[in-house]
């Protein structure tokens, strides 16, 4: 087998296609048939869901979340915010527990003769 055979085949295919295209261009019937075939192959455009502008903020936010393409990003963003808020609140609760001394230690830290604070009568 010739070593250049596959390369020659590609060359021949390309040039055969060029010749075919020239023939189709010269033949008006073939051109119209080709145009019809292209139209048949082309998919009809999908109706895009529109995000309402103005009006209720809540409704527009919901429409944004429901949107097929934009909603994916919005849902990911919301989930990320929720994760971050949960971690922050968890860390804050831990620091509050560590910072607040137990009641026995609070009395020990108070100066002698000081009375514990009482609620004012309403």
From TrEMBL:
Q: May I have one GO cellular component term?
A: ribosome
**According to the UniProt record, where is the region Disordered?**
95-122
* Keywords noted in UniProt: Ribonucleoprotein, Ribosomal protein
- The molecule here is called 60S ribosomal protein L29
């Amino acid at each position: 087998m010739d070593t250049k055979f596959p390369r020659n085949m590609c060359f021949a295919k390309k040039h055969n296609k060029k010749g075919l295209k020239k023939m189709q261009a010269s033949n008006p019937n073939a051109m119209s048939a080709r145009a019809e075939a292209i139209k048949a192959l082309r998919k009809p455009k999908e109706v895009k869901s529109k995000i309402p502008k103005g009006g209720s903020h809540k409704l527009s936010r919901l429409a944004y979340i429901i949107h097929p393409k934009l909603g994916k990003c919005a849902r990911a963003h919301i989930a990320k915010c929720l994760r971050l808020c949960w971690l922050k609140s968890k860390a804050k609760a831990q620091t509050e527990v560590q910072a607040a001394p137990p009641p026995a230690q609070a009395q020990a830290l108070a100066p002698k003769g000081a009375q514990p604070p009482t609620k004012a009568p309403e």
